[in-house]
Write a structure and sequence with these properties.
The chain is mostly helical and 202 residues long. 44% of the residues lie in helices and 6% in strands. Helix 2 (10-42) packs across helix 4 (73-85) and helix 3 (44-61) packs antiparallel against helix 4 (73-85). The protein binds protoporphyrin IX containing FE.
């Protein structure tokens, strides 16, 4: 990034960053919600549990506020599971800044190499997540052992990932609040998934 940005005037860099915030904030949120509704329609038990939790928290506080969002713990598990199966960024990239010998191998990643991390493949790898292709929010119920480092990366890795998560959970949760209002849950006419991946990160 530094290599690239240093060669552009500051106003271009500012405009580019504004565009990243716009694109990063909208497309990621809308596609996550779309995939979540697909899974909720196919998994009515999960849907009803989430609706019931919203009803309870709303009844307790009369309305859902930013603070009460933190009590929607089941919804958070549903969001985490959606982001595991459908990470809006299926890969992230890094530029290698100095030669790096991968331990216990003959491989040297040379300075300047662009390294791609296959997030989608890792998220659906059975070696890290049992029944990796299944939508199971319960796998995120606390207490649980956290996934090993580098295994669950819907927000990427490094200093900005925590900040992104803090920004994103409210924007994913608030649109779900009115979801408890209709009397009948949403139902899928067919539950066969149209979006499937093959292979793993191995
Ligand atoms: C479902 C929601 C979201 C997901 C899954 C998501 C995911 C990601 C990922 C994977 C990256 C790349 C990080 C990396 O390379 O390590 C990224 C970057 C970024 N996202 Fe998002 N994002 C989401 C929502 C948002 C929102 C709501 C905003 C702002 C309002 C935002 C702003 C940004 C920005 C500014 C970057 C660049 C950060 C940097 O270069 O350090 N994103 N996002």
């Amino acid at each position: 990034m530094v290599y690239i940005f240093n060669s552009f005037p500051a106003d271009i860099v500012i405009a580019a960053n504004a565009f990243i915030i716009f694109l990063g904030g909208f497309e990621t949120t809308s596609s996550t919600l779309a995939f979540m509704f697909l899974e909720l329609a196919a998994n009515e038990e999960v849907q009803e549990k989430m609706r019931e939790e919203i009803r309870q928290v709303e009844a307790k506080y009369k309305e859902i506020t930013y603070d009460s969002l933190h009590e929607l713990t089941y919804m958070e598990m549903v969001i985490q599971e959606t982001l595991r199966l459908y990470p809006p960024f299926p890969t992230i990239q890094r530029v290698c800044t100095k030669d790096y010998a991968i331990p216990e191998t003959d491989v040297v990643v040379e300075e300047g190499t662009i390294v791609v991390f296959p997030i989608l493949g890792i998220h659906r790898d059975e070696q890290y997540f049992a029944r990796a292709d299944a939508f199971e929010p319960e796998r995120w119920r606390e207490p649980r052992a956290p996934p090993p480092p580098g295994v669950y990366l819907p927000f990427g890795d490094g200093p900005s990932s925590g900040l992104l998560q803090t920004f994103s959970f409210p924007s994913l949760s608030f649109p779900l609040v009115p979801f408890q209002t209709p009397r009948k849950p949403i139902k899928a006419k067919q539950t066969k998934r149209h979006v499937q991946t093959t292979g793993s990160s191995k």
